[in-house]
Amino acid sequence: MKLVIHLLLLTISVGALATPGLVLNKGHRLVFEGRVLAIGPSPGYGSGGVQAYQLVKYHIKHLCEGDYDGAEIVVDHLLLNPDELKDLKIGDVACVGVTKSKDVNSRWNDGQLRYESDKIDAYYIALDTFIRNCRCRRPKSGLLPSGFDKSVDGLW
């Protein structure tokens, strides 16, 4: 029964992501390796009739796919249950895949990482998060890291 409920919530949540503002083309995807700087509070419920998000702020160490100008990013993690990010800790290095969107169906203002008065030009909605290093090593600046030797380390 739990499995049926979980699958139903997953179906509803994924379907709810298909909003006109959500763009899934390659130009709006971003995959990065980042260090967790802050984790906002959980809304206390998972997605169902309303999308539930938890915000996480990352310092971008490496870009694997896409372009992003800033050093830090706030990501909206869609929750199926309120404890979904309980294993994510400040200081963790995570590999995060996001989709850039102009809007979300239910904006989450947690009072720590985002306030009602904040103007948001783009939302970064997490598609995948893994608490591990990414396999890419493209530095944020686009330059080779110090000590990088193409003959030893290979090409990206």
What does this protein structure show overall?
The protein is of the alpha+beta class. It has a single domain (2-136), classed as OB fold (Dihydrolipoamide Acetyltransferase, E2P), CATH 2.40.50. Helices cover 13% and strands 31% of the residues. It is built from 2 helices and 5 strands, in the order H-E-E-E-E-E-H. The protein has helices at residues 2-17, 150-153; strands at residues 29-39, 53-65, 72-78, 93-101, 123-130. It has a 5-stranded antiparallel β-sheet, with no helix packed on it.
What is this structure's SSE topology?
Blueprint: H1 2-17, E1 29-39, E2 53-65, E3 72-78, E4 93-101, E5 123-130, H2 150-153
Antiparallel strand pairs: 1-2, 1-4, 2-3, 4-5
- Looking at the overall shape, the CATH architecture is Beta Barrel
Number of helices: 2
Tally of discrete structural domains? 1
Rg for CA atoms: 17 Å
Main beta-sheet strand count, sense and barrel state: 5 strands, antiparallel
For the secondary structure, the number of strands is 5
What is the subunit arrangement here? single chain
Spatial shape:
globular
The class by helix and strand makeup works out as alpha+beta
- Percent in strands: 25-35%
State the CATH class: Mainly Beta
Strand order of the largest sheet: 3-2-1-4-5
**Average pLDDT value?**
76
Helicity, as a percent range: 10-25%
- Elements, N to C (H/E): HEEEEEH
End-to-end separation in angstroms reads: 45 Å
